[in-house]
Amino acid sequence: MGHWVGIAVVGDKVTIVGATVPASGPMVIECDVTWTMQTGNRADAYKFMHHQIADFLGSKRVEKVIVKASAVSSSTKLSHLTSAELRGVVICAAASSVANVSVLAKNNISRNFGNRKMDEYLKDEAFWTAEIAGVHLRSGSREAAMLLLASRL
Fold it and tell me: For the chain, give me the number of helices (H) and strands (E)?
């Protein structure tokens, strides 16, 4: 059983779910937070987010961090690129605080976890009731939590 953190970056928001993850059975959610990147100078905002994440992970004795990978889109827009930049900052901050950091793609989870696509799991209330305990998990944080469930296989 270990303390793991799943991180999903969407737009200018970073969602972090921390949990104690046993080899089987429900994982115990210990934290569910979302941080929004500061407005203004992007370099300063990235620096602030890096420090915030590194300090957070360093204070929690995290053993493993799983970050949701960027996805390929046929209609990539500036918001996708900005999100990818922020994701890079998040990965760097995690690696500066935790030795075991991995990046996991949504399509990889759909192929290798269970027999459904990830989006189907995200909408399934019964699945989440069975798979989690502890602090209430916001429905918007399920992607970050799913990274943890998929990584324990």
Answer: 6, 6
Give this prediction's pTM. 0.93
Cβ atoms of residues 57 and 94 within 8 Å? yes
User: Mind listing the pLDDT tens digit for each residue in 27-82?
Assistant: 999 999 999 999 999 999 999 999 999 999 999 889 999 999 988 777 777 777 88
Joined together, the tokens standing for residue 98 give: 């935790």
Q: Provide the domain count of the chain.
A: 1
Residue 152 tokens, joined: 């324990």
- CATH number for the domain harbouring residue 21: 3.30.420.10
- Evaluate whether 10 touches 36 at the Cβ level (below 8 Å): no
Starting at the edge strand found earlier in the chain, the sheet holding 13-21 runs 100-104, 64-68, 2-10, 13-21, 27-36, 132-134
Domain containing residue 97: 2-151
